[in-house]
Amino acid sequence: MDIGSVFDAGLTGGLFGLLGNVASKVLGLFEAKQVFAQKKEEWSHEERLLDMQMKAKAAETEQELAVTAASGSWSGLGESLKAETSIGPAYPWVNAVRALVRPALTLGLGGFLCTAFFAMTPGDIDRAYVADSLVFAAVTAIVWWFGDRAPKKGAR
Questions:
Q1: pLDDT at 149
Q2: Which domain holds residue 96?
Q3: What local confidence, expressed as pLDDT, does residue 42 receive?
Q4: What was the pLDDT predicted at 8?
Q5: Which residue, of 29, 59, 73, 137, is most buried by count of CB atoms within 10 Å of its CB?
Q6: Which of 135, 153, 148 lies closest to 98, judged by CA?
Q7: Do residues 95 and 127 both lie within one domain?
Q8: Statement to judge: residues 66 and 133 lie in one domain
Q9: Interacting residues of 4 by C-beta distance below 8 A, sequence separation 6+
Q10: Domain closes at, from 66, 86, 106
Q11: Residue 10 sits in the same domain as residue 74
């Protein structure tokens, strides 16, 4: 064994060790890149799930608000009718004024909205809102009028 062969063996072993180390590092970087891509996909999936959950929660909250508003509206109408029926007998002129309040309010509101509707130009965007208000006011007045005059149970 001479010194040249030892030197060659050491140099060759060092080069193979260095190549193995570099190959290991390159494979480690490739593997880290794949792991990062997989994590990135998981994170985007979680982000989509959270977004869908937030949208579902927002829709649920919106529906709960609509139900609460509708139930509050109906309970207000019920309380109004209950207050109206709890008023006892009074002077005839008081009963006449009380009986005319609701028709006067209904006709006044309808007249005001009709005047506003016909005062607007036909292409005006707010005209649609006034038309919606007319329909809403008319339906509310009709339900209030006929709801109050519904036949009482046990009155037969």
A1: 60
A2: 90-156
A3: 92
A4: 64
A5: 137
A6: 148
A7: yes
A8: no
A9: none
A10: 86
A11: yes
Backbone φ and ψ for 121, nearest 5 degrees, come out as -70, 150
Q: Which amino acid is at 53?
A: Q
- Whether 60 and 38 map to the same domain: the answer is yes
Instruction: Check residue 68 and give its pLDDT.
Output: 74
How many CB atoms are closer than 10 A to CB 141? 17
By percentage, how much of the chain surpasses pLDDT 90?
13
Structure tokens at 135: 């329909």
For residues 54 and 99, state if they share a domain. no
Q: What is the pTM of this model?
A: 0.35
Same domain as 51, residue 82: yes
d(CA 97, CA 135): 27
Pick out the chain residues at pLDDT < 70: 1-18, 70-74, 76-77, 81, 84, 88, 145-156
At 36 the pLDDT is: 92
pLDDT for 41:
93
Amino acid at 63: Q
> Residue-wise over 98-107: b if at least 16 C-beta within 10 A, else e?
eeeeeeeebe
Tokens representing 74 are 């109906």
Same domain, 1 and 70: yes
3-state secondary structure of 90: coil
Residues 62, 79, single domain; the answer is yes
